[in-house]
Write the structure tokens for this entry.
Amino acid sequence: MSYATFAELRAARPLTGRPQRCAVAGAADAHALEAVMLAAREGYLTPVLVGPADAIADVIAALDVVEPHVVVDCPEEENPAAVAVRLVRDGEADFILKGGMQTADLLRPILNKETGLNERGFITHFGLMQLGSYHKLLAMSDSAVIPHPSLADKARIVEVCTEALRSLGIERPVVAALCPAETVSPKVPETVDAAELAAMSERGEFGDAVVVGPISYDLATSREAAEVKGYDNPYAGDVDMLLVPEMVTGNVMSKIWNADPRNTLAGCLVGARVPVGLTSRSASMEEKLASLLLCSLLSAAARANQGAQQ
């Protein structure tokens, strides 16, 4: 199954039961609170606001507040992300959103080997994009965390991100391992990695996910381009995810797409026990809401899976 828009995704994956509880680490931040309150009004989540209670109250006073919400007082000298992690571990929150704090401070308690949420030992960024130039929502691999992924890193990225896609209802995700050309050449190491990832998928190492590569962006996203160039592959022009060769590629691509008002880009960290939202202060409200919807859907799917296993 695929979805043309975020609205179609939400309609197909209704958030049944109680809303997911979003622990906002550093909640005395107007940008984060405005988005969270609007998402709560849309039924995506219940806000759990972590930070100095007085400072949060000052920010909330200027907003259209949604009930219910919870304020967890956190002294200024304590890291609110550490409190958010404890709330997740204690079953009092379902996912985390970065508020007014530095990303490094947010990640430190999440990655803590003894008390954090990184039991799998691997966290990556997962983007999901509604592009005016593409016929369905398109995922993209890490554009924010791993600068130069090794072949082993790319394999883990495929594993974790296709798991996320399946939880959104995309049963057999197709991943395009992007390269400048379709010919394998030792002079272009990315093509060697892409070919090996494709071979791994043929051996069933990614379950029912398919990796196509090496493949260029135009062939991955345009059936017409594939026909013109004589590229014969059943998945050309219809992939579900782009695996970028390195972080800077994805970062530049996402910023180019973001400049087009037809496009909406959502994203979060995946691989940890719960999704972690990293919405930018400069992001549009539409983008922030899409990211919170993504986090809520992934969190709800994980909770449902845990319940089925118990």
Remarks:
- The chain has a mean pLDDT of 94.
